[in-house]
Write a structure and sequence with these properties.
Layout (H helix, E strand, L loop, with lengths): L17 H22 L12 H14 L1 H4 L34 H10 L13 H13 L3 H13 L10
Helix pairs in contact: 2-5, 4-5
Length: 166
C-alpha cells in the first residue's frame, strides 16, 4: 500500500520523484542550450575574415590560375612533402590538410604575389582583391579547427613552418 505524503491531494497519485526528475532534466537541457548559444556570442565561432562573395570570386580565380598546379579542390600534389631533384617541393595542398595555415594572411598574400620555390608570382596577373579572394576560397575549405589555429598564428604574426606534417 502506498502512503500519500501530507502535501498530496486526495485522489492524486504519488509523485515518486518523476515530476521532480523531469524538471531537473528540462533545466539541464535549458542550461546546455543557453551555454551553447552564449558560447557563440563572443564572435569567434564561425566568423571568418572574408565574405561569401570573396569565396565565390576566389573559386573562379583558383580554377583559372592555381588549379593546374594545386589540383582540383586545392588538394595539391600527393608527394608535396618529397623534394624534387632541384630541391624544391611540389605544390602543397591548400585545403587545410597541409601547412598553409602556418602562414599569416600577409605572408600568404606575399607568396601568391611574389612566388616561392617553383611557384611563380601572380602579383602582375592578379589584383590585391583577387589574391584575397583566392585565399578566402581555399580557407573556406578549412575546418573550423584548422582555421582557429591559423587565426592564432595570424594574430601572433608568426611566419614559416612550425610543423610541416600537417
Amino acid at each position: 500500500m502506498v502512503t500519500l505524503g501530507a502535501d498530496a491531494l486526495p485522489g492524486t497519485l504519488p509523485d515518486y520523484g518523476h515530476e521532480r526528475n523531469a524538471r531537473r532534466l528540462w533545466r539541464a537541457a535549458l542550461v546546455a542550450v543557453l551555454a551553447a548559444l552564449l558560447a557563440g556570442c563572443d564572435g569567434a565561432a564561425g566568423e571568418r575574415w572574408y565574405t561569401e562573395e570573396q569565396v565565390q570570386r576566389g573559386e573562379a580565380v583558383f580554377e583559372a590560375q592555381c588549379m593546374a598546379c594545386h589540383g582540383e579542390g586545392a588538394r595539391g600534389d600527393e608527394n608535396w612533402r618529397t623534394r624534387e631533384p632541384d630541391g624544391n617541393l611540389p605544390p602543397p595542398p591548400l585545403d587545410g590538410s597541409a601547412h598553409a595555415w602556418h602562414h599569416p594572411l600577409d605572408e600568404l598574400r606575399g607568396i601568391i604575389a611574389h612566388g616561392q620555390n617553383n611557384m611563380p608570382g601572380f602579383g602582375k596577373a592578379l589584383s590585391d582583391e583577387e589574391i584575397d579572394a583566392v585565399i578566402a576560397w581555399f580557407q573556406s575549405l578549412w575546418s573550423d579547427e584548422v582555421y582557429a589555429a591559423w587565426e592564432e598564428y595570424d594574430e601572433a604574426g608568426m611566419e614559416g613552418h612550425a610543423d610541416d606534417s600537417r
